[in-house]
Each structure stands twice: as structure tokens, then as C-alpha cells.
Design a protein that fits this description.
By secondary structure, the protein is mainly alpha-helical. It contains 7 helices and 2 strands, in the order αββαααααα.
Length: about 240
């Protein structure tokens, strides 16, 4: 097996993970209104989700493929490097905001209002990321041990489904309740609205997780059939 060829999928999945991660952070400031065909208990007829929800869902696709093909420890290393890259992104954005702007370009105030994420969003996003992404890798391999390395669909849905619930709950509570209450940044939301945000966003994320399972099978199957990685039983090691 040619080393340069076998490294291709590994590098591509890591690049997809990091690219989707930073994209999700940048576009999260826009809220999308997703309508439901009929009113749903707790959620209602529509749900607000950050525009980065699709990009962030791709990170779970990439990490599940990576964990399946290369193992738990490499996948967790990728996740934790991604966490560090969040700080690189924030530093570069704030340097750009602080630098003097030319009137010939985008209005500096508009630039800051779009890219300068508030403290509560940053703290909530980072806390949710580090917990949920690491849980995704741990759960993926725990289910792999339980099923003796079989049922990739169960590992994908089980790990992503639970990690998305953790991610959504931590993000909403941190960004819209705890941080605003502790440091006075932004307005803390009431319990009913928080519950609506958590359930509504989770339903959308869970649907995306179900839809990405065939793509996980396709990616893993292609890499293995092309002989670009050794077949292995998924374990928690």
C-alpha cells in the first residue's frame, strides 16, 4: 500500500473536519427559521437554529469516519486539535477587527457586528464542542465494543445522536442562561424558551445525523475497498 495514497483519506477527513468546524463558527451568527409541517409539542410550528448547524453536523460525519478508519486515539487527537483551532480562529478574527479599516472596504462597524461573536456565544460554543466531540468518539468506540465491531449504522447514529443532544444542551444553557447570568453579557432567557431552543435544535440535528449514515457507509466502504486503510475491528483502545 502506497503511503502517500493511504494518507490521502486521512488528511482529507481531518481537513473536512477543521474546515466545517471553523465555517460553523463563522456563520453561526445568522439564525435560520425552519418550519415544521405541523405544530410539535414544546417546539411549536417553527424552530430557530444557527446557520452553522449543517456545517457543524459535517464535523460529526468526519469524526465518525475518522474514528471508524483510524481508531479512537487519532480521532480524539483530531478533535482536540480542532478545539485549539477555535482559538486561532478567534484570535485572527479579533486581530482583523482591531486593525484600522479603510472606508473603501466593508464598514468596520458592520464587520465587527457580523464576525465579533459575543462572549456568551463563544463560551457556550467552546464548552459544547470540547464535551460533545470527545463524547462522540468515546461513544462510537463503546458501541463498537458492545457490537463487536459490527453495525456501523448503530455506532454512527448512537454516537452522533447522543453527542448532538449534549452539544445542544450545553450550548443553549451556557450561551443563553449561565454566562449572561454570571457576567451580565447578553440577556438570560426563560425556561420555556430554553427548552424550546434545545428540543427544536436537537430535532434538526438528529434528522441530519440520520441522513448522514449512508454517507458514512459510502466513505468508509470506499476507503477500505480501495485498500487505503487496513480493515480493523473498532475498539475503545
Amino acid at each position: 500500500m502506497n503511503n502517500s495514497s493511504s494518507d490521502g483519506p486521512k488528511i482529507a477527513l481531518a481537513a473536512l473536519f477543521i474546515t466545517s468546524l471553523v465555517t460553523a463558527q463563522l456563520i453561526a451568527v445568522k439564525l435560520l427559521v425552519v418550519p415544521f409541517p405541523s405544530s410539535v409539542p414544546i417546539i411549536g410550528g417553527t424552530v430557530l437554529v444557527p446557520a452553522g448547524v449543517l456545517a457543524y453536523a459535517v464535523t460529526f460525519f468526519a469524526s465518525d469516519c475518522y474514528a471508524e478508519l483510524y481508531g479512537r486515539r487519532p480521532a480524539q487527537l483530531m478533535v482536540n486539535i480542532g478545539f485549539a483551532m477555535n482559538f486561532v480562529l478567534l484570535a485572527l478574527v479579533w486581530v482583523a477587527i482591531a486593525a484600522p479599516g479603510s472606508p473603501a472596504g466593508v464598514d468596520p462597524a458592520a464587520f465587527k457586528s457580523v464576525l465579533g461573536l459575543s462572549t456568551n456565544i463563544v463560551v457556550g460554543s467552546l464548552a459544547a464542542y470540547i464535551v460533545s466531540q470527545n463524547w462522540d468518539v468515546i461513544a462510537f468506540h463503546a458501541i463498537g465494543d458492545y457490537t463487536d465491531g459490527e453495525s456501523l449504522w448503530l455506532r454512527n447514529i448512537g454516537s452522533t445522536g447522543t453527542s448532538q443532544l449534549i452539544d445542544t444542551t450545553i450550548f443553549v444553557l451556557m450561551a443563553f442562561l449561565l454566562v449572561p447570568s454570571i457576567i451580565g453579557t447578553g440577556q438570560a432567557l426563560g425556561g420555556a424558551i430554553l427548552l424550546q431552543l434545545i428540543f427544536g435544535q436537537y430535532v434538526i440535528k438528529l434528522l441530519i445525523a440520520l441522513l448522514d449514515t449512508p454517507f458514512v457507509y459510502a466513505m468508509v466502504g470506499y476507503v477500505r475497498s480501495a485498500g487505503l486503510v487496513e480493515s480493523r475491528r473498532v475498539t475503545a483502545d
